[in-house]
């Protein structure tokens, strides 16, 4: 199974429409891959908070249309990164005035939308994404012919319970689009390897290059195997990271070193 991670440079001087066209072209160039991955919020920039409302789009908006066609043209499974999704209001009184979400789109090789995932853990504490966007509530996995993907986004990487739940749901490969800042790049690499080791699963973590709203991006997209070994890692700039994976290695690792079978659940809290 071949995977290509497209570490895009999100240049603020490039319009969203221009970037969509460029992303679609990059996806089409990966027709030899089985799975292609784009980063988090690449149409707008993960830290361009002031642009979220303006750049928000419905689920089946311009990014959906461009990525659906690109996946079909290339004949690949496409994790199209994420968009700022604008939803309808709960009252249904007007389309497009509901909450915003950080929503990932996954397309099949025929261009059909296979699954969506709304980011559960929003970054920013009391500002930014944490206050501008709603929180997702659903664990999402995607069954491919070769493996099962577990979906997460950027800040989700810091919450191991999410990945353990995805493992329990059958995930063998985690796909994590991100807009991770350079100043915490050491955490990015460490956590990607940790999620792989503790769940004995592949990790495909795809970040962005460039600078979003003054925040330098870490780049360094990485592919980690079920033993925690780094199979490939990008640099800081725009780059396509391509690696051949053996999905059978997940089951082999879990059989060879069956640590997941030794989990003890339902432990009582310590007495005080």
Automatic annotation (TrEMBL):
Query: A Pfam family name for this chain?
Result: CN_hydrolase
Please give the Gene3D superfamilies that the UniProt record associates with this protein: Carbon-nitrogen hydrolase (3.60.110.10)
**CN hydrolase domain mapped to chain residues:** 1-247
Q: MF terms per GO, please?
A: hydrolase activity
- Keywords attached to this entry: Hydrolase
Presence of keyword Hydrolase: yes
Recorded family membership: Belongs to the carbon-nitrogen hydrolase superfamily. NIT1/NIT2 family.
Q: What is this protein called?
A: Carbon-nitrogen family hydrolase
What is the organism field in this record?
Streptomyces beijiangensis
């Amino acid at each position: 199974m071949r995977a290509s991670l497209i570490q895009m440079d999100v240049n603020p001087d490039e319009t969203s429409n221009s970037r969509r066209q460029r992303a679609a072209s990059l996806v089409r160039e990966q027709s030899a891959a089985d799975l292609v991955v784009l980063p988090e919020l690449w149409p707008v920039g993960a830290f361009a908070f002031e642009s979220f409302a303006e750049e928000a789009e419905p689920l089946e908006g311009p990014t959906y249309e461009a990525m659906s066609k690109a996946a079909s043209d290339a004949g690949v499974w496409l994790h199209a990164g994420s968009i700022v999704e604008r939803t309808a209001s709960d009252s249904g009184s007007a389309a497009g005035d509901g909450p915003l979400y950080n929503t990932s789109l996954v397309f099949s090789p025929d261009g059909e939308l296979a699954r969506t995932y709304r980011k559960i853990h929003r970054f920013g504490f009391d500002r930014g994404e944490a206050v501008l966007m709603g929180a997702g509530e659903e664990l999402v996995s995607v069954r491919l012919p070769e493996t099962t993907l577990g979906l997460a986004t950027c800040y989700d990487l810091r919450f191991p319970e999410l990945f353990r739940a995805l493992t329990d749901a059958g995930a063998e490969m985690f796909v994590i689009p991100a807009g991770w800042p350079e100043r915490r790049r050491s955490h990015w690499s460490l956590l990607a390897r940790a999620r792989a080791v503790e769940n004995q699963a592949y990790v495909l973590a795809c970040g962005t290059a460039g600078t979003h709203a003054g925040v330098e991006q870490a780049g360094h997209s990485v592919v980690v195997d079920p033993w925690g070994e780094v199979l490939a890692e990008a640099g800081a700039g725009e780059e396509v990271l391509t690696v051949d994976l053996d999905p059978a290695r997940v089951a082999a690792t879990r059989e060879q070193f069956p640590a997941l079978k030794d989990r003890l659940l339902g432990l009582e809290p310590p007495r005080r």
